[in-house]
Amino acid sequence: xxxxxxxxxxxxxxxxxxxxxxxxxxxxxxxxxxxxxxxxxxxxxxxxxxxxxxxxxxxxxxxxxxxxxxxxxxxxxxxxxxxxxxxxxxxxxxxxxxxxxxxxxxxxxxxxxxxxxxxxxxxxxxxxxxxxxxxxxxx
Length: 139
Hints:
This protein has helices spanning 4-18, 22-29, 33-41, 49-58, 62-66, 76-136. It is mainly alpha-helical and 139 residues long.
């Protein structure tokens, strides 16, 4: 396992690669900004449940954080992970948008079908009246 300083640098590098402030990263991890800052700066023990949550957020293995494989300044892999995560979030948002559009379209089609059926019922009723009148009156 890497040194505590190395792990702290990895944690900071991940946060920066995701473009998060300490406050936002703390929120994502369920920590206050102060608690998160301590995780990066040292007073808090490194083996913390937040490290596991951080690995989920950054989509990397805990071992990569604890193993010292990440270096401050060489966060290209992290940036790629962050970009991939952002793309996944954008795709999910687009998927929800199009699902809502399809649902609205289906609801509108159902409304139009009901309207057409009502009009057909009126037409059939009027045809019945006309047939009755033709049968019972002389035109």
